[in-house]
Amino acid sequence: PAGFLREATYVVHRAGGLLIADEVQPGFGRTGGSLWGFERHGVTPDIVTMGKPMGNGFPMGGVVTRPDLLQRFCEETGYFNTFGGNPVAAAAGHAVLRVIEEENLIERSAAVGGHFQQSLQALQTRHPVIGGVRGAGLFIGLDFVDPATGEPDTAFATTVINKLKQNGILIGAAGKYGATLKIRPPLCFSNEDADLFSATLDSILKAR
Q1: Which of 51, 54, 156, 167 could cross-link 24 (Cys pair, CB 3.0–4.6 Å)?
Q2: 83: β partners
Q3: Which residue(s) pair with 22 in the sheet?
Q4: pTM of the model
């Protein structure tokens, strides 16, 4: 939930630690409302890592940190990268940022993601095998459970993933038990796409 990391950040800093925000998956507007996932929590990380969405398929990644931490790192650790600052990668990253801004993808992620979560939550009311739906923007998790026990149902999650694939929808599982659908569609995803996903999932669950 939004704001969850604020207290955790205080505890980490009080103990002398650093807050590292891994934005490889939630970054670049996916969570809606802002460019970075950590902004939902009202915290400022000491280090931010970013990767795949940065190049929209072009292989690249990056690390951002405070100047004082970077200075200490350079003084204590030898580091050299012959591929750093690749101009083609830089152009790809710049194009991604331009499209995010020009096509209002952050706002789109929030709006479509909200619609998508509502449709999935509606499915939850009809199918007790769905134990929970949560997320932010287009970063959504859907848990499958055994209705009788409430325990994670890994086998059924695998079955659903395979049936979705047969219907042209590629998706994977995540979480400790592999019973959570990790729903991370591209930011150009539409309400119509979300409705198609929900309708397909509904038909699979009805046939359970």
Answers
A1: 51
A2: none
A3: 49
A4: 0.90
Q: Tokens 């100047």 sit at which residue? A: 67
CB-side neighbour CA atoms (13 Å) of 20? 7
Joined tokens for residue 17: 């630690």
pLDDT of the residue at 184: 96
Q: How long, in residues, is the chain? A: 208
Give the pLDDT of residue 79.
81
pLDDT band at 83 (very low <50, low <70, confident <90, very high): confident
CA distance 99 to 110: 16
| SS3 state at 14 | helix
SS3 assignment, position 57? coil
Burial class (CB in 10 A: 0-12, 13-18, 19+), 164: middle
Q: What secondary structure letter does DSSP report for 93? A: H
For the four alpha carbons of 2, 48, 113 and 132, in that order, the dihedral sign comes to negative
The tokens of 182 are what?
């990790």
What tokens were used for 193?
Answer: 């796409």
What is the band of 193 on the pLDDT scale with cuts at 50, 70, 90?
very high
- Ordered by where they begin, the domains of the chain are 4-103 (3.40.640.10), 105-207 (3.90.1150.10)
Instruction: Answer yes or no: is pLDDT of 110 > 90.
Output: yes
Q: Do residues 205 and 120 lie in contact, with contact meaning Cβ atoms separated by under 8 Å?
A: no
